[in-house]
Design a protein that fits this description.
By secondary structure, the protein is an alpha+beta fold. The protein has ten helices and 13 strands. The chain folds into three domains: 163 residues, Beta-Lactamase (2-Layer Sandwich), CATH 3.30.450; 86 residues, Helix Hairpins (Orthogonal Bundle); 157 residues, Heat Shock Protein 90. Helix 1 packs antiparallel against helix 4, helix 5 packs antiparallel against helix 6 and helix 7 packs parallel to helix 8. The chain is rod-shaped. The two termini are 67 Å apart. The structure holds adenosine-5'-triphosphate (ATP) and magnesium ion.
Length: 489
């Protein structure tokens, strides 16, 4: 629908501009030609007038008498173009008419004659005998010596000029509609041709659906409007595909991860429902069910959060915030968590650091690290927390004296669902999503993490975030890999 209207519009404007151009050019050419011919007619009239003035100059006395003498034979205006000559004596009486005038007499404007003391004047064109238009030059005549002897008139027919003008108009009347038709056909062809690549893109884009989202439009060899459209569409397909993958992965993860707790819940429920089940047995089964249900809801919550962060939808609004209150809150929670497990919390320096971030996400990040530290440290151990400002960065450190991580496992711990077999008994109820969330949150904040760990001795996670003060100045390093800095002791 819209494609047709673009083509129609292109054709319409093309034809209209073409017609207007032709009209303007046609009229301008006609005017130019008319002025040229008109000027040459004036010239011819003046030449005729001078020829007569020269001849009359030789005459003596009144022109009437002279004419009577010579019977007009001495007057010899050039024959071409056919000029009409008429002479008047001092009384404004016509004394001579050239033969080509026949019985006809050129009109005499007495007012004009009286005003014309010397020289010559060309009167406005006039229509004579209701037929042709004429142009008349009137002039005063006087011999070499002596007073004026009368007036002369030379006239030329404008018949040819008028005919040329009529023909020209007629030609334009045919040419312009013809040109409009031709330019409409041409314009339509051009518009179709110009819109063809868009039509092609449209066809291919329509073909790309859920089943072949990985396909892309072929890029054009030239960087033109259509090329940019293709780029935009390809970007869109890319994002669609990513979201699609994300959704598929989410569903797959959910169904996979929920299978075990659901099986457990089912088994425990069956135990509880057995007619022979003792009250204590029932109670234990229900406790397991509640635990598993809690675990499942935590898992789904984490998965949803991860999926949202990864897909880029609901990008959090980063605002300037102070890390100190967040870390102080975390310290409270860490103290409680540590005490319930018989661990000591060592609180280090808590500097004031301003970063560009999302308070809820940063809190979640710190919590996941503290949760791990507490979880993977046997009772009697130490968990240490500190926030220090170093140069242009804020460094949040979570250290523990727990089981530590094998060097070979370091590269996997940030992957979703990765859980070390060694720590499994300690991290009861975990799903392996904590550090994936940390990684995603760091990506959003353009931060990075350093992990230092020694099996049997403990681990240290240092989160590095750019300070807001520098990011303002525009010197912040963008796009650094969040897991870029990883170190082993
Ligand atoms: N402080 C730590 N000390 C020792 N091992 C750790 C520590 N932090 C993480 N790990 C290892 O990395 C794995 C992944 O951690 P992650 O936080 O992603 O998952 P989780 O703690 O097992 O489960 P969840 O965080 O979802 O409850 C853990 O299973 C553990 O093996
Ligand atoms: Mg964890």
């Amino acid at each position: 629908m819209s494609r047709r209207s673009i083509r129609f519009e292109l054709t319409f404007w093309y034809s209209l501009i073409m017609a207007l151009t032709l009209l303007i050019v046609g009229v301008a050419i006609e005017r130019l030609a008319y002025n040229r011919i008109s000027a040459s007619i004036d010239n011819s009239l003046r030449q005729g007038a001078y020829a007569i003035i020269n001849e009359v100059a030789l005459l003596k006395g009144d022109v009437g008498a002279a004419m009577a003498d010579t019977q007009g034979t001495s007057l010899n205006p050039p024959p071409w173009p056919p000029r009409y000559v008429q002479l008047l004596d001092t009384n404004m009486a016509v004394v001579y008419r050239s033969r080509n005038l026949g019985a006809f007499q050129l009109p005499v404007d007495t007012l004009l004659l009286r005003r014309l003391r010397s020289g010559m004047v060309i009167a406005p064109d006039m229509k004579l005998l209701d037929r042709e238009r004429f142009r008349v030059i009137t002039f005063r005549m006087r011999p070499v010596k002596g007073s004026p002897i009368g007036w002369g008139q030379v006239a030329l027919s404008l018949h040819d000029l008028d005919r040329a003008k009529r023909k020209n108009r007629l030609a334009l009347a045919f040419i312009i509609p013809g040109a409009i038709v031709i330019s409409a056909v041409l314009g339509r062809w051009l518009a179709t041709r110009a819109l063809q690549p868009i039509e092609q893109v449209n066809r291919t884009a329509r073909h790309i659906g859920a089943t072949n989202l990985h396909e892309r439009l072929a890029p054009r060899p030239v960087e033109d409007e259509v090329g940019r459209l293709i780029d935009t569409l390809n970007d869109l397909f890319e994002r669609l595909e990513q979201n699609f993958i994300q959704i598929n992965r989410f569903s797959a993860d959910v169904s996979h991860e929920l299978r075990t707790p659901l099986t457990i819940i089912q088994g425990e429920a069956e135990v509880a429902l057995k007619p022979t089940a003792a009250p204590e047995e029932m109670r234990q089964a229900l406790e397991v069910i509640v635990d598993e249900a809690r675990r499942m809801s935590q898992l789904v919550r984490n998965l949803l959060m991860l999926a949202r962060l990864e897909s880029g939808q609901q990008r959090p609004q980063l605002t300037r915030l102070s890390l100190r209150p967040i870390v102080e809150d975390l310290a409270e929670e860490a103290r409680y968590m540590a005490s319930t497990k018989g661990l000591t919390l060592e609180l280090g320096r808590i500097d004031d650091a301003e970063v560009l971030g999302d308070a809820v996400l940063l809190h979640q990040l710190g919590f996941n690290l503290i949760d791990n530290a507490v979880k993977y440290t046997p009772p009697g151990g130490v968990v240490a927390l500190s926030l220090e400002v170093a140069a242009t960065t804020a460094r949040l450190s979570v250290r523990d004296t727990g089981t530590g991580i094998e060097p070979g496992e370091l590269e996997f711990i940030f992957e979703r669902f990765y859980r070390s077999a060694r720590t499994r008994p300690l991290g009861e109820g975990g799903s392996g999503l904590g550090l994936s969330l940390v990684k995603q949150i760091l990506e959003i904040h353009r931060g990075s993490v350093q992990v230092t760990s020694k099996p049997g001795e403990g681990s240290r996670f240092v989160i590095i975030l750019p300070l807001e003060r520098i990011s303002r100045a525009g010197r912040r390093e963008a796009g650094s890999s969040p897991i870029g800095e990883r170190a082993l002791s």
